[in-house]
């Protein structure tokens, strides 16, 4: 199977749904312009707070108007820099004879704060809430282009899904960049394990965590937030080389200004009209999957990419991802797939080096359009400031600055990419193999059953997990409790593995983008609540997880399984806002379809 063959298969599969989406886009594209559609009363509300000059020019359609959708809040470190972006965007637009308005704000929760806490049960659903809020923000229909300010886990996918409902407009995503490097990730992980075993107290653990997460900017490990950034470049929705430029730098500010200039040029009033629907295509979606596999990206994107593609009428699935992973070499080692962070990765050559490597070996679709223009040339080059303080993209990045972080297609870190799909009588799940040593990628062992993360922790504290086993944590799917991440379990299982036990995790929940060395078959579908075999497993049943053969199997006779009653689902509390999502849990789609409640 080749990238072209996989792309062609997706194009054929998506023919009807893509045509339906493009018909919707054409309907909006062919509508009369806002000055002709809106009444004087409508316009009076639009411009009431604007300058006297804008009150005249905007209703007359003089100059493009950018709608800014921002995920700013100052608790989330990755989004705190966005506080000043709207003013920069507005002033740059004004210099270009255009205007910009904050169309709306969307929620932006931090999974680092809610990890292991009840609020994590709202995390995945927040993606679709953000998509809805983006659509509401843009529904005033007075904008010629969309500028999205977001970085982190569910936020970027939600912004993409919402913006795609306005696919007749061009869209530009603008990141904030990663915080400077803190303590090494290995040191941080070790401190967590020491806390789990009681070797250090909470004060020492907080000291370690604060030395890692220490300033404004995105967390520096290669989790979901930074995988989002990689995919935004792969999709062509972000200027080339903007992902991993630190906040507060001159280059960062100038890239934001350049984003405004290019977006204005791509509106219907510019010289290079380039609507979002022409950027997000089957070919660019495949490019995003390739980049995810080549970098060992977050498994959360196996859900988000499906949902984003569906919003553009494109049908992809885990089987496509598995096929792409099997023909895409792993070219990056960034924590949790290595010890480097994204700042080290960027200095070593970053995404530009990877794009050049993948292009040179026919692993990317070249005939795409993006916010840089046509093709992928720009994405193999890095931006820099020239002597006049303007942005220039340099030569193609062909040199690897650190062979422990980046590698070539000829000498990859692994012959295959970062993900594997596993399937069998238990269901279908996803494994992040790029972070799991070869010796741990196959396990056959009796299972221990848990319905909550706390139950597994208690069993660990009681010394009940000191054996070879597969931990099954069930009733964690989207219909049960919103599919929280179970990253809290990583230190306990990691300790057991370090002590020589063969351990793994099987769950219908998610794992953090920072999930690492312990074999985890996650996102298992059907989930326990919806009739999945997970609900019929009993303590001691032998399970086999084989990443090489793609097997997820309970070694129990079918007659025995069919004679069992399903386990009782634990009660999901409705505190901390969870009650508001009860109806969403009732209609949400399964994880193989992106775990979305939109359109249900």
TrEMBL record:
GO terms for biological process: D-gluconate metabolic process; Entner-Doudoroff pathway through 6-phosphogluconate. Residues 405-595 form the Dihydroxy-acid/6-phosphogluconate dehydratase C-terminal domain. SUPFAM superfamilies: IlvD/EDD N-terminal domain-like, LeuD/IlvD-like. GO terms for molecular function: 4 iron, 4 sulfur cluster binding; metal ion binding; phosphogluconate dehydratase activity. Keywords: 4Fe-4S, Carbohydrate metabolism, Gluconate utilization, Iron, Iron-sulfur, Lyase, Metal-binding. Residues 65-377 form the Dihydroxy-acid/6-phosphogluconate dehydratase N-terminal domain. GO terms for cellular component: cytosol. InterPro entries: 6-phosphgluc_deHydtase, Dihydro-acid_dehy_C, DiOHA_6PGluconate_deHydtase_CS, ILV_EDD_C, ILV_EDD_N, IlvD/EDD_N. Its EC number is 4.2.1.12. The keyword Metal-binding applies. Pfam families: ILV_EDD_C (PF24877), ILVD_EDD_N (PF00920). Coiled coil: none annotated. Belongs to the IlvD/Edd family. This is Phosphogluconate dehydratase. The lineage of its organism: Bacteria, Pseudomonadati, Pseudomonadota, Gammaproteobacteria, Arenicellales.
């Amino acid at each position: 199977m080749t990238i072209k063959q996989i792309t062609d298969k997706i194009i054929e599969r998506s023919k009807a749904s893509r045509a339906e989406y493009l018909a919707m886009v054409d309907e909006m594209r062919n509508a009369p312009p806002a000055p002709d559609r809106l009444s004087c009363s409508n316009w009076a509300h639009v411009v009431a707070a604007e300058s006297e000059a804008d009150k005249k020019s905007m209703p007359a359609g003089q100059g493009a108007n950018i709608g800014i959708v921002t995920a700013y809040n100052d608790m989330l470190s990755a989004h705190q820099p966005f506080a000043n972006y709207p003013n920069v965007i507005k002033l740059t637009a004004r210099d270009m004879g255009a205007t910009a308005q904050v169309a709306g704000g969307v929620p932006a929760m931090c999974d680092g704060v809610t990890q292991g806490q009840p609020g994590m049960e709202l995390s995945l659903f927040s993606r679709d809430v953000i998509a809805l809020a983006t659509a509401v923000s843009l529904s005033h229909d007075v904008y010629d282009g969309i500028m999205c300010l977001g970085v982190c886990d569910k936020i970027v996918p939600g912004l993409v899904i919402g913006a795609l409902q306005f696919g007749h407009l061009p869209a530009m995503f603008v990141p904030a960049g990663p915080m400077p490097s803190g303590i090494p990730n290995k040191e941080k992980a070790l401190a967590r394990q020491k806390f789990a075993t009681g070797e250090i107290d909470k004060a020492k653990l907080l000291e370690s965590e604060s030395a890692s997460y220490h300033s404004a900017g995105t967390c520096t490990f290669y989790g979901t937030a930074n995988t989002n950034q990689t995919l935004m470049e792969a999709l062509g929705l972000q200027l080339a080389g903007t992902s991993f430029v630190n906040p507060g730098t001159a280059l960062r500010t100038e890239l934001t200004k350049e984003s405004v200039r290019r977006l204005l040029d791509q509106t219907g009033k510019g010289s290079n009209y380039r609507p979002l629907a022409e950027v997000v295509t089957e070919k660019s979606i495949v490019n995003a999957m390739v980049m995810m596999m080549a970098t060992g990206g977050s498994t959360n994107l196996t859900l988000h990419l499906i949902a984003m593609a569906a919003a553009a009428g494109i049908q992809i699935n885990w089987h496509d991802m598995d096929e792409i992973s099997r023909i895409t070499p792993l070219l990056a080692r960034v924590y949790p797939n290595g010890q480097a962070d994204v700042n080290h990765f960027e200095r070593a050559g970053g995404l530009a080096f990877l794009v050049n490597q993948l292009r040179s070996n026919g692993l990317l679709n070249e005939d795409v359009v993006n916010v840089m223009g046509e093709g992928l040339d720009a994405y193999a080059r890095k931006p820099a400031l020239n002597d006049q303080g303007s942005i220039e993209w340099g030569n193609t990045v062909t040199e690897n600055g650190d062979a422990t972080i980046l590698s070539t297609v000829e000498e990859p870190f692994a012959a295959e990419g970062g993900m594997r799909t596993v399937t069998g009588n238990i269901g279908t799940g996803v494994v992040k193999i790029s972070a799991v040593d070869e010796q741990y990628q196959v396990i056959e062992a009796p299972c221990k059953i848990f319905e909550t993360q706390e139950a597994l922790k208690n069993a660990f504290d009681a010394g009940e997990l000191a054996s070879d086993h597969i931990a099954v944590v069930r009733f964690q799917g989207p219909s049960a409790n919103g599919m929280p991440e179970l990253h809290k379990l990583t230190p306990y299982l990691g300790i057991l593995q370090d002590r020589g036990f063969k351990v793994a995790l099987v769950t219908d929940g998610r794992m953090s983008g920072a999930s690492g060395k312990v074999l985890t078959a996650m996102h298992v579908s059907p989930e326990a609540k919806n009739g999945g075999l997970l609900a019929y497993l009993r303590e001691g049943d032998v399970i086999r997880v084989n990443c090489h053969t793609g097997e997820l199997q309970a070694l129990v006779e079918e007659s025995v399984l069919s004679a069992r009653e399903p386990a009782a689902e634990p009660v999901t509390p409705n505190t901390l806002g969870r009650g508001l999502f009860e109806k969403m849990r009732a209609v949400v789609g399964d994880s193989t379809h992106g775990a979305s409640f939109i359109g249900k």
